[in-house]
Amino acid sequence: MDYTTIIGLEVHVQMQTKTKIFCGCSTKFNPDNPNVQTCPVCLGLPGSLPVMNRHAFDLAVKTAIAINCQIARFTKWDRKQYYYPDLPKGYQISQYDLPFSHDGWLEIVVNKETGEKKKIGIIRAHLEEDAGKNTHDETGRGHDSQVDLNRAGTPLLEIVSHPDLRSAQEAKEYLEELKLLLTYLEVSDCNMQEGSLRCDANVNVHIHRDGQKIATPLVEIKNLNSFRNVELAIEFEADRQYRQWQQDGKTFGQVNKETRGYDAVRNITVAQRSKEEAADYRYFPDPDLVPVTVEEAYLQNVIQSMVEFPAARRTRFIQQYQLSNYDAAVIIDQGVVFADFVEHVARICGDGKQACNWVTQDVLREMNDRKLTIEGFPIQPPVLGEILKRINEKKITIKSAREIFLNLLNSADPSTINVARIDQIIQEQGLSIVADSGQLETVIVAVLAKNQKAVADFKGGKPSAAGSLIGQVMRELKGADPATVRELLLKKLAE
Amino acid sequence: MSIIGATTGELLSRLERGELTSVELTTAYLDRIAQQDDRVAAFLTVNGDEALQQAADVDRRRQAKQPLGALAGIPVAVKDVLCTKGLKTTCASRMLANFIPPYDAHVVTQLRNADAILIGKTNMDEFAMGSTTETSAFKTTRNPWDLGRTAGGSSGGSAAAVAAGMSPLALGTDTGGSIRQPAGFCSVVGMKPTYGRVSRFGMVAYGSSLDQIGPFANDVNGAALLAQVIAGHDCRDSTSVNAPVPAYSQTVNQPLAGLRVGIAKEHFVEGLNPEVEQALRAALQVYKSLGAEIKEVSLPHTSYGVAVYYLIAPSEASSNLARYDGVHYGHRAAQFSNMIDMYATSRGEGFGSEVKRRIMLGTYALSAGYYDAYYLKALKVRRLIRQDYDKAFEQIDVLASPASPNPPSKIGEYSANPLAMYLEDIYTIGANLAGLPGISVPAGFTEAGLPVGLQLLAAPFEEEKLLRAARMYEQATQWQGKRATL
């Protein structure tokens, strides 16, 4: 079995505007109260007219720039016509031959260890309105289907990639990088469960046979509602196409493009309809909307107000904090709030590497164990930064810092988690590093006196006996630095 | 002087002087409708109770010396293609036979703000598709001058309501001549403003790039006042133009010095009725006598106008009418076997034959493989037609022509030949394709006593000039004083 999988993705992203793209209705996800976020415009009532939401256009331009697209100086709106109950006007306002952006790329990391990257070409990104949602009776009792138009008119950005992806894994990486970028830009929350990110995959395989490359017919897979399913569906579909080719020998061009749906329960793709019978959408320019012209000054404005993109931030973290490719990716891929958290801690404690380690290990572990989000984590950067700062200032040991961290985390009253409380715990539990060697020496002498057998063992050639002695000293003097204790103790034993 | 048949200006001054109340006035028109409309069939809905309440409210506020709008107490009939909150808006179609909009069209809001009385909703060709008001699913409006003939269309109900003295003012819509042609047929004044001058919000769309709302009145002054009330920018219509509205009613009586009246040589073609041509020539003589200069211009692409229009308007219509699918509102078939059948049967039952014809024409013109040859080509020729007018208006102020090549048609005359009906639009269509303002004013009668309309067109946003030129002609002739006798 020697073939390469060829994948292009069409991603639909609901943009986080307060109001819909052509009317003033709310875009809130509100499935429990159907048809309350509607007006004559998004209901498609006779005589209603669309008016473009400028904010939606701005967000779309911002995204297109972030995926390195060319922005068209002149763009227009077209009607895509088909009948479906969730489409109240009988057409969707979309963009056909003059999309607002085209020809870009998104870089993905194909190897997290080496940081190896690959550019995935973007054919176009265009804006359109979302349709409503049909709910069908699935009890089999044949009740009426219902339509909820709360979603109708939500701004959608459709991003179409070139068929540059070569594996299901790459497809997943592309989606994850895109999602990360969109959340960084605050364009979308990309919640696949709520439908704010939807994806169709165009898949075929190139079979290598006797130095020849044989392409199988193209298939579009729909109903992909999680990144994991995208991966599974593509893997299944590539293998299915290979087996199909072994059976019938049909190649690209001999069969029309087919649409298949992914059945997650059975992990298979199922034929839906052949594009041969697909509708003629009869696109034409929407006479109700005026074309949009984009000025250079406007574009410069958008570019200047842009945040740092995830890819650039990854590179900077590697350099600035001496992180590995892997560690930088772990931080950045957690999202903008997480990365901001790390940098905030780093600013306070003065050691980026240390901040990265603590947040990716201690904070991330506790977040996962306690099912917390970074926004809801009880110890925020101002407090965590101060704990770490005390390690760097040699006021407490790393071990004591962990104790303080857990102590704060377990506080019954989160409002008591503050910088003052750190010092209070240090005080109460005697965690201050004992820099006074006189005090240390007194304790060591006392411990040695109490443990004659261990001292004899050590002197008799059992170095491990020192461990229990150090442990006892540490128990007596909580704030003592273990290295110093060890050093002084060995010195005493050698006397 | 009688209320029925009086001009808007006369009625307004009598109301202002306290010689007449709005309730008396509205009652007189409602009585007239009750007496005459079973013969004329201009109205689909008479809004009697609400009209009288509005009138009483205006009277009360006038009594209390509160500020009142520009049309305070004056009845206005509204074409049934304009949404009226809480009042049935049917587009004369079975599809919307029971549709009650939850909102007012922008122009209806403007009427309410001007304290006008919404006296009723007028008959029309179904979804404004037709030139005779015979495609209405409910009734055929008759010409008040000859009940055996049509009132024109598609705004035939509004034109006939004014001509029959059932309302001093009315609103219509004009996509290919649907205000100007029925105004000519009924010997009233009707104006189509520049595309973008009046918001289309709440006007049920037929051909969105051509549709425009405009006034009917029994004199130019009335039309100027109503135009002024409805014009202006509205942020809910992206194609509405944000430019100040001149006070048309203030300037309309000022004659234009050095007026240049153009005639297009392409307008004198076979098919132009000799009596209509004679009326036009006489009108040109009137302008000459008023000191105007008559200039011949050329509009070389005139002969393509009808073809271009009957590609663009049905294309847009096929899309605009897709929403009437029986899913969310409007007619839904009582019986169907599946979803596709529900669409097909509901639409099959809900639409009349002319609407179906235009939906099919438009669907065909937009289909893959035909788009370039039909729709796209039509858009290109449309631009050439616009250029013809731009060039012409460098030399002239207004372009004069008949409103239509023939006098009012007999009822049923075109029922077997829709193409012949389409060809009657030759003089009016250009203004829609080019987005120009146009007006039709009464220009006399044929020997058989049938009205003839004079159409004037002007450059975009030159409504003020157009109204003043129309008023000059009206003042110099006696046609405005003629009223149909029923």
Give a structural overview.
The complex is a heterodimer of chains A (495) and B (486). Chain A is α+β, with helices and mostly antiparallel strands and 495 residues long. Helix content of chain A is 40%, strand content 21%. With 486 residues, chain B is of the alpha/beta class. Chain B has a domain at 8-254: Amidase signature (AS) enzymes. In chain B, strands 1-3-2-6-8-7-12-13-11-9-10 form an eleven-stranded mixed sheet, with helices on both faces. Chain B has a two-stranded antiparallel ribbon with strand order 4-5. Classes of the chains: A alpha+beta (495), B alpha/beta (486). The interface between A and B is large, with 27 and 45 residues.
Our count of helices of chain A gives: 15
At CATH level 3, the topology of the domain at 8-254 in chain B is: Amidase signature (AS) enzymes
The N- to C-terminal Cα distance of chain B equals 18 Å
> Level of helix content of chain B?
25-40%
Biggest sheet record of chain B = 11 strands, mixed
On the 0 to 100 scale, the average pLDDT of chain B is 97
Poorly predicted runs of chain B: none
Strand elements of chain A, count: 17
Shape of chain B: globular
